[in-house]
Amino acid sequence: MLIQTGPIPVSYCGSKDLSNLREVPVSAVTDTVVRLCGEANIELPADVHQAFYQAVESEESGVGRGVLARLLENADIAQQTRLPICQDCGLAVVFVDLGQDVHLVGGDLEEAINEGVRQGYEKAFLRKSVCHPFTRANTGDNTPAVVYVRLVPGDKVHIWVVPKGGGSENMSQVKLLTPALGRDGVKKTVVETVQAAGANPCPPVIVSVAVGGTFDQAAVNAKRALLNHLDWQNPDPEAAELEAELLQEINDLGIGPAGLGGRNTALRVFADLKPCHIASLPVAVNIQCHAARHKEAVL
User: Fold this and answer.
1) Residue 100, helix vs strand vs coil
2) What is the pLDDT at residue 69?
3) Model confidence pLDDT, tens digit, residues 225-247
C-alpha cells in the first residue's frame, strides 16, 4: 500500500484533543469496496456513455460508427442483465483519500480493502485475473488489490475502485526522456505509444499523461488522472492546451474504434504536469480501454 502525504499541519505536531476525530469502522470500507467492484464492472460511467453518442455523430467511418453502436448496445445489455461489461474484469486498483480527522477502527485498512475485493468479485460473478508473476498460479480471489492512500484535510474517506484490464495496462508506458527533448519530445512519446498500441487496448481509449516528478510519481499520477470525468476541465492552461493537441494528433492516426479505422481513436486525453529534477523528464502514458471502469463513494 502506497501512502502519499503532504506537510503535517502544525496542530497535529503537538498535543491535540483526539475526541474530535471521526471514527469510521473498516468494515464500512469493506462493504463499500464490495459494492463498487460490482458497479464498476457492470455500469458504464455516464460520462463515457455520453461520449460514445458524441463519437457516433462525429465518426466519419461507417465501420467505426457500427463499432460504437455495438459498444453502446453492449453497455446497455450489461446494465440490464447485471453482467460484466467486459470479460476481463481487471486487477482492482483502489485509491483512498483519507481525511486527517478520521480514525479508522476495527482492523487494518489494506486488509479491509482486499476483503472488499474478495467478496465483491465473488458476489458479482466477476472473473478473477490475479496470478503469481512466474508460475501464473491464480490467487483465486482477485487479491491483492493495488492500493494508494493519500492523506487529505477533513473527516471523510473517499474511495475509488478502478478495475484495470490487462489489454490497456499492457500498452501503457513510463519513459525517462532527455530534458532537451522538451514538450515536443513528450508529445512524440505519447503519440508513438498510442500508435504502437493500435487495437490492443480496445479503442476508443482514454489516454492519461503525467509529466514530471519522478519515475514512480509520474506512473501514479497518470493512473490517478483516469478518475476524472471526461467533461472535466483542466485548471492548468498549459496542461489543457497539451491535452487538446494530443487528442487531435492521436485521432489523426486513424486507428479508430476497435482499431478498424476512423476518427475516434481516443475519447479524451488527460495531462498532469509536475516539476521535476533538472536532469530528468519523466513521462507516463496510461491507456484506459473504452469501458473506462471506475466508481467512487464517500464515507
Assistant:
1) coil
2) 96
3) 999 999 999 999 999 999 999 99
298 has pLDDT over 60: yes
What pairing do the DSSP bridges indicate for beta strands 2-4 and 146-152?
parallel
Grid coordinates 466519419 are at which residue? 60
198 phi and psi angles, rounded to 5 deg: 55, -130
Among 97, 112, 227, CA closest to 150 = 97
At a CB cut-off of 8 Å and minimum separation 6, what does 76 contact? none
pLDDT band at 17 (very low <50, low <70, confident <90, very high): low
Q: What is the DSSP string of 112-140?
A: HHHHHHHHHHHHTTPPP--B-TTT--B-S
DSSP, res 180: G
pLDDT of 13 over the 80 cut: no
CA atoms within 13 A on the CB side of 184: 2
The residue assigned the cell 484533543 is 17
Angstrom distance (rounded) from CA 7 to CA 122 = 39
Whole-angstrom Cα distance, residue 168 to residue 197? Answer: 8
